Structures are given as structure tokens and as C-alpha cells.
Amino acid sequence: MLWHITIFSISGLALVILLYRVISIARLPVHLRWELAPAPHEKSRWKYGGSYLEEQEWWNKPRRKSLLQPLKYMAVEILFLRGVWKNNRNLWPFSLSLHGGIYLTGGMLFLSPINAFLIVAGLPAEITDTLAEIISYVAVIGFLAGSAGAISLVFKRLVDPDLKPFSTAGTFFNLLLLAMVFVSGAVCWFYQGEFGDLLSLFLSKLITLEAIRVMPLTFILYVAISLLFLLYLPVSSMAHFVIKYFLYHAVRWNDEPLNARMESKLRNLLAEKPHWSAAHTGTDGQKTWGEIGNGVRDEE
Amino acid sequence: MKNNELRFREFFENADSQLVKIEINHLIPLPSPYDKSQVSAWRELDTDQRRRLVCNLDGFIAAGLPVPQNAAEEQKYIDQFVKGLKKLLSRESNWTFLQPLLLSLDFCVKCQTCCDSCHIYLASGRNALYRPAFRSEIFRRLVNKYARKSSSLLSRFGVDEIKLNWATISRLYELSYRCNLCRRCAQACPMGVDNALITRELRKLFSQELGWAPQELHEKGTQLQLKVGSPTGMKPKVVKDNLDFLDKDFSEVTGLNIATPWDKSGADVLLLPGAGDILSFPESIMAFSILCNAAGINWTLSSEAPGYDGVNYGLFYDDIQFVKIALQHARIAKKLGVKKIVMGECGHQHKAMMAVADRILTGELNIPRESSMTFLENLVFSGRIKFDPDRNNFPVTLHDPCNIVRNLGIVEPQRRILRYLCPQFREMNPHGVDNYCCGGGGGLSLLAGANFIGWKVNISGGLKFKQILAAFSDCPGSGVKKYLCAPCLNCKLQFRDLLEYYDAKEKSGIYCGGLAELIVNAMVDLKNPFITWGEY
Amino acid sequence: MAQMELAGRMLEVDENGFLQEPEKWTEEIARAYAAKEGVTELTPDHWTAINYLRKYYQENGICPMVRRLVKETGFNLKKLYDLFPNGPAHSACKWAGIPKPTGCV
Question: How far apart are CA A168 and CA A157, in angstroms?
């Protein structure tokens, strides 16, 4: 049962921490607008980066936003690292390799529980074996790409004068941890063989809460390192895989004009009492933002 | 020390010595006849300035901090700085930008993608001091170490060096005024981190907690505007008198009957001009007057302080000042009962009223706000005025003010006007939302003490100047008069400094003005050209 | 606060050399400022401009716009630059002991 307890509790904990972080960001107060063009939800204006504010008497017209364009933009951004390609071409192949490895690992982690269920459900071996083979291929490409990406980025950051002085301990730690995950996976894959089978079977036993026989050492190492990574992921900047949503949708593309729902939140915020020490602010923790803003014009 | 070799550690050491020295031959080269070798170097700080003011950054002074009396005073500021850091992370004191700040603090992955998008970094010859991420990273480490209980795991181990001392905070203060807040870096960042936002938060901390801010922005800026009505110092009586003079003077010159309306209750439009235009670029306000009257628009100016000056320098450095001024502008519009407010040709005013202040203009203060770009486009294409584009048959290029274009997405209206009314209109490259800042953004165009102009025209304005020259490369030389259209007062000020410094009017025939004047210049009803190329 | 020696006295000036205490201005100070910019003698035309600037400042609290200066004195921009090397805003206002114009001007 040790496997089951370990894996479920650590995954559960990681998920809870991630959710906590996401929720605490989502619950931060409404902020003043700080949008940035181009915004892909602007239907035809997206071509040149225009916004609804160009429109004559825009307040009298219904707001038409494209749902598809932002999705297309984010898909390209996520899968092909559009921002890095456009603005930092030099870094792109390394980053793509790393992220490619992550996405393929994600693919592996998506297919393998499915295969595990199929095994438990008693589907014929032709199907589950085939799927296991696919999982193996996805896994190895992912492990190799991820290893290459993470390790090459460590070296690049040690060698490139544009990166070395500005890379922090956290940067290297993240990359080394990622490298360890991918490398341990690759080692297990090449040493053990039939990785897809191994993983699917392992997961099937997890699902049914059956006892798991002793796993190969390389596999144990891979799983252990992955679990450590999983615990660290939500508290690090690598959580950007979820939180980038806020950076884009809550800030950069947030050009929503004041509406009734926002207004009630804003009234509460304007009732907050700021504490700043400079004399000109006239804030002492007693006056609200609204009162400060409504202050009588300063006469001397 | 070579350009890119600055280390974080050096930033925290030797508070009394200058951190980097900018060599003129490190800067990006300009085309002839503006090669650096032909241009005189900037004014160096004199010994008296070096004695009185803190100058431990790059040999320039923008914000101007008096040297503290003793170590106790330095420590006082350091302690206040830490208090300020914590307040920036609090809901009650900084809900205004809390979410964007926290996100930008925690998700930088140090990829340095932002740096190559920064015109200041590039024009300086890639001096590491001006990397957007450099300044932000120092701030980030200070926040993580001194202001957060649950900071990043590794910062607790003190592995990334950071020292909180006088060197650090005094340099950070000046360095926060080496950014135009243009947000090209924010566009380039794949993560969505905004280094301009962080720069502004830094400025805010210094202003709202320590009371440190450049006097051009604060004492002679927002405070003066709150006191008398405008940072120009114009009181209502003076501004009305000035406009009266201009109405008469321009009526004489143009043969039109110009009468600028004041305080018309219930008008359709309240125009919020930059009052500096009235003093320094009066053809701009007169052009609006001429156009509105010719098109039969029911419009007005306000003579109630500060309703005749749409600027809000708080946008550059201080939320409290920002809120005070924005609410006053809106209240004046509400009192007049106008149907909409039109932003004059002023970039930061656009961003302040149409975007940033939008969420605090609640209830009756939520009066519709429109850009002058849209307003003018409607006017030009309404058919109510007759134009002859041949009157504008000279090379024209468009400068895109960051606060109107990149920050608000108002891109095409002004172009549709120029394509119609200016047969020789050509774009700069890059343009639109990809434009380069004029170099005066973020309030820097107002900072003119000590030797800062030298920095602005060489470094923050370097790439822009190259762009302007390239846009007119088909007709170099002073033989052909060229119009640089800059629909923003602060940009016009920066261009005035830039063109004067490089003698560009004499050498290349470049003249800078706004959009409204170009429109009036094409009016069929005018007997003489409205644009006088700076002669009067 | 910076200080500058003008007409034999140490006076408070801003970082651009403008007088911080306008009430201390004298004609000698105007001559001293002019000398620093290479103008050794102040002609009646100089005084016409300087006197107008001072009068306007005393009535209105700020420097007049250049267009007004041009109209009131009858000197066009070129003539003003001939009289005041750094122009009406930087030279003339300074020599007239008026504080440097503030704001977006």
C-alpha cells in the first residue's frame, strides 16, 4: 500500500497547493486597467492591433469579442512558444525542446491512465499492448527532448553572457530538477525496456488498489524524482503553466470597461483606507481612497 | 568596464561612486550627418552638482536626490523603503495594481527576452544597467527578502545576492527614471511580465512612502495642478486671457472668426486639452477650435481648475495624485453636464482617463470618454468641412504615442486621416503597436534638470531619431520641409529637444507638430497655409 | 539648492540656473546672466523684452507664451533668438529673473 499512499497523497497535496495558489491569485482585488495592445479578442482589428476604443461612441455599441482568436493565439503560444520565437529566436530551440519534452510527458500521463483503465476493464491485449507501445514512443521522445532541452539550457545559461549574470539560483534549480526528471525517465526507459507496459501496469494496480510487486529500481527512481518535482511545481515560477492565464486574461487583455458587477467591487475598494507616509498623500489609515479622491482642491 | 559586464553585486556597493559611465561611442550609430563624431557630447555634471546631489548611477541626474546629511538619515530612508515595500503588497494601500504586481514579481523566468525590445537598452549600446529585467530583478529580490513572509523557497537561503543599503535604494530611485513606461518589454515577454509596471511601482513606493519624486512631476507637477489648475501654473483667469489673445491673433492671421467657447453647460463635447499646448503649441488648440466650429460641433472648454488641463502626471509615479486629479476631471465634466469628454492630443491623458481611471469613475462620474483621434476622424469624414489634400503635399510621417497606440489600441483613425489628407504620408518602421517610444515617455520629457536632456536625446531618443531619419530617407537635407506628426504634447516636447539638439530643422528640414494642425492646413476655406513651419 | 554668483552675490538658482528668489532680481543680475551667454551689452530692445516679461509675470504668475512676447514687442522669433542666444524660454526668462516655466511647455 505504500505506493498507493505515497502517490495519491503527494499528487493530492500538489493539486491542493496549486489550487490554493490559483485561487489566491484569482481572489486578488479588481485592479485598475493596464491593458496592452494587440489583444486577439478584437475581431478584425487584431490584424493591426487595434481595440474597441477606436470606435466612435463605442459606449453605445455592443461589444463584440472573438472567442476563437485568443484560443488560436494561446495554442500557438503554448505549443510553439510563439513569444520566444518572435522575440528571442536564439533561445527558442532550447526552450522548445524542453517544453516539447514536458508536453510529451503530459501526453504520456494522459494515455497511460487510460490504458490502465482498459487493462482493468479487461480489454484484449492487442489493444492495450498497442497503446502501451504508443505510450513508450511518446515517453522516449519526451524524455530525450526534455533532457536535451533542460541540460542545454543549463549550459547555455552558464555560458551566454546575456544570460549568465541574470540567471538566479532558482532558475538553475528548476532546470536541474527538470533534467533529473527527464534523465531518470530516459534511464529507466533504456535500461528497463517496455516502458509503456511497465507504466500502464503500474497504474492499473494503483487504480484497483492491488498490491504492487517490487518495481525496478530505475522506475522507482523516476517516480520518486517526479513526485518531488510535482510537489515543488506549484510553488515555483513553473506554475506559469496555469497562472499564465491570469497574466494574459486578467491583466494584459483585460480591457473590460466598468460594468455593474465590477462597480460594486470597486465601491468596496474605494472604501479601503490606505496607509502611506509621505505628507502629500494625506493618508493616515483614516481616510478612504474615495475620500482622498474627493478631497477639496488643495489651497495654500 | 565593458557595456554588458555589470553585475548585481556592483549595484549594492560603493554608494559614493558612479556605477557606470556611458561612452558616446558605445551608442548606436546615427546616419550622417548625425554620426556621433560630429555631435557634441552631452554636458557633464559639474563639481557642485556632484557635491549636492546623489549621482552614483550613470553620470546623469533625472530625479535629483539631495545627498543625505549623515548615515542616520540614510538609515531612516532605508527603513521607510522596507515599510513601503510591504505596503505595495497590501490590499488597502495598493489594491489598484496588486494583482498585476504580484504576477509580474513571481513569474519572470530570467530569459532576458524583454531586453532586446527596449529602445533604451539598444540605443545605449546594450548597457546592462538599462536592461528592463535588471531593475526589476533587484526590486524582486528586495521584495522577496524583506517584504514577504512566505517568499520563494530559494530566496530564503539568500543564494541570490541582494543588499538593502543606501547604494541600492538611491540608485534604484534614479534608475526608476530611466524607463519610458512604454511597455515594449511587456509586449515581448512570453510570460506576460510587465517591467514597466514594476518600474512604476518603484516610483510609487518612493513617492507615496518617502515623498521622493522629481519636482517637475510632483511639486511643480501634480501638486501645482491641484493647487492652481495646471502644472504650467496657469490659473483660470490666465488661461482664459491666453485663449482670448490666441482667438484674436489667429483670427487675424487666418481670416476666420475664431471664438473658443468656455463652460457651456450641456454641451455635447468637453475637450480636455493639454494646457501646455496653449502656451507652447497654440496652433494645436486653435486648430481644434477652428475644426469644431467649422463642423458645427456643440463643444466647450472648462475654465474650472483643473478642467482646462487634461494632464495627470500621477499616471507616471503616484496613485494618490492620480486618483485626485482623475476624479476632479470627471467631476468637472459631470458638473457641466456634457455628453462626452474628448481627450486632447496628449498620450498619457488618454491612458489615464480612458483606461486606468475607468474603474474609479463610478456612478455618475462614468461619463463617456473618446479619443481625439476618433473625434477628428469623424469630423474629417463627416463631409461638413471641405478639404484639399494638395495643401498638405509635403512628406509627412506619423509618430505613434505609446499611451494612445500600444497601451490603448487606437491605431487606425489617425492613419485614415493622414492617408486622406497627406498625399506624401509614409509610415515609420516599425509603427503602430510596434512603434518605438519618442524617448520622453513616462514623464521623462518633463525632466530637464542638470544634464538629463543629454540622456534623453542620445539614449531614450536615439532609436526614434534613427526611425525619423529613415522615414524621410528619400528626401534628406533641408531642401524639403518635412512634417513629423506627433499627436501628443509630451512627445512634441521630446521631439523639440531632439530636433534642437541635433539641429535637425536646419540639417534635415524636419518640423514637428500635431494632427489637428495638419487637418486645418488642408481646409479649403483658409486663405493662407495654417502650418507656418515654426515661423512667426 | 544650487547657487550661482551673479552681480557679485551668491544667489539660489535651480539646476538650470534660473533664479529661485525672483524678488532678489536687479538689472545687474540680468546683465550678469547675459554676460554668461556671451552678450556683453543689453540694448533697449533687450530691455523691452525683459520688462514685458517681468510685467506679465507679476500680473499672471507665469512666463508669457512666446507668441505674446512676439506680438507685444514686435520682435519676430528670429530677432528674439538674435537678442537672446538660447531663445525666449531659456535665455530671456532667465535674464528677467522669472522662474523656469513648469509643466508641459
Answer: 10
Q: How far is B238 from chain C (nearest CA, A)?
A: 6
For residues A285 and A234, state if they share a domain: no
CB < 8 Å to A262, chain B: 359
Q: What is the pLDDT of residues B264-285, one digit of tens each?
A: 999 999 999 999 999 999 999 9
Asked if residue A270 and residue A218 are part of one domain, the reply reads no
What residue in B sits closest to A27 (Cα-Cα)? Answer: B99
Average pLDDT, chain B: 95
- Whether residue C104 lies in the annotated active site: yes
Distance from CA of B509 to the nearest CA of A (A): 31
In-domain check, residue A126: yes
Total domains in chain A come to 2
**C57 contacts on B by Cβ (under 8 Å):** none
Measured distance CA(B508)–CA(B476) in Å, rounded: 6
Q: What is the pLDDT of residue B534?
A: 85
**Range scoring the smallest mean pLDDT among A65-79, A131-145, B143-157, B312-326:** B143-157
3-class DSSP string for C49-85: HHHHHHHHHHHHCCCCCHHHHHHHHCCCHHHHHHHCC
For residue B466, count other CB atoms closer than 10 A to its CB: 19
Residue A225 resides in a domain: yes
Q: Quick one: CATH architecture of B219-376?
A: 3-Layer(aba) Sandwich (3.40)
Name every chain A residue with its beta carbon within 8 A of the beta carbon of B112: 88, 162-163, 166
Query: Is A30 an interface residue toward B (CB < 8 Å)?
Result: yes
Residue numbers of the domain that contains A277: 262-299
Q: Out of A31, A48, A83, whose CB is closest to B432?
A: A48
For residue B233, give the amino acid letter. Answer: G
A216 preceded by cis ω (within 30°)?
Answer: no
pTM score, two decimals? 0.95
A257 occurs within a structural domain: no
Q: B150-160, pLDDT tens digit by residue?
A: 555 555 565 78
**Mean pLDDT for all residues in chain A:** 94
Enumerate the domain spans of chain B.
8-210, 219-376, 386-521
